[in-house]
Amino acid sequence: MQEIQPASALIIGDEILTGTRVDAHFPWLAQQLPQRGMRLLRVQYVTDAAKELRAVLENSFASGVTTFCFGGIGGTPDDRTRQCAAQALGLELARHPEAVAMLERRFGAEAYPTRIRMTEFPVGSGVIPNPINQIPGFHIRNHYFYPGFPQMAQPMLEWTLEALLNRPLRAAAMNSRVLWIAGLGESALVAPMEAWAARFPQLEFTSLPMWGAQCIELGVRGVEAEAMAQAWEVMRAHLTALGIDYADEPPAGANAG
């Protein structure tokens, strides 16, 4: 069984930060990656400004975490992701022969002189094919770069997961179970949660207060089905022994807070 692989995401573009566009990448990643045996550690929204973007990429490359990057790889002056990625790594940009061939097949002579700039990647990059318009993304040093359009980025990322990261669907998928406790403060759950975490270190135990009702969503998640089943029974038995009532459904009016 594959272990859960950590991942992060950089969502690049002033249009997101100003509210001109609404990000669709994070919700999609949060839904898709657990089905591939991956878990998001962080998601960062980043400006197109070169100095700040370069600094974020430098830190990201240094982290060593698999990172999916969206936006800023086009050919207009405000698209700076390719350049900043190269600078963050101390590399030059160069036209990638495979990417050049893709654009020439798609556009012919009209690939020059401007569209061809979109084939300039940091030296040593690999190509990520784009099935929508044949203008590829690229990958280097465990970072994967896609267009800002979700309709293009999503199939490209699916290809990355299958072809480059060997993460087929349902590979070590993350599972979760939750129950609800009303009329109790979170402090009463500290000691039980610590005990469960010590007994099942491969699992995660979570407490989420709900707004609109004095209620806590108590959960456990992990990959190992047997450990999950054992932990679920231990949790319920422990709560019962402590005289803490719980329910399998949330109370009316409860919202995450």
UniProtKB/TrEMBL annotation:
Record CDD domains: cinA
Alphabetical list of SUPFAM superfamilies matching this protein: Molybdenum cofactor biosynthesis proteins
Pfam family, one: MoCF_biosynth
Domain of life assignment: Bacteria
Domain MoaB/Mog: 8-167
UniProt protein name: Putative molybdopterin binding domain-containing protein
Lineage start: Bacteria, Pseudomonadati, Pseudomonadota, Magnetococcia, Magnetococcales
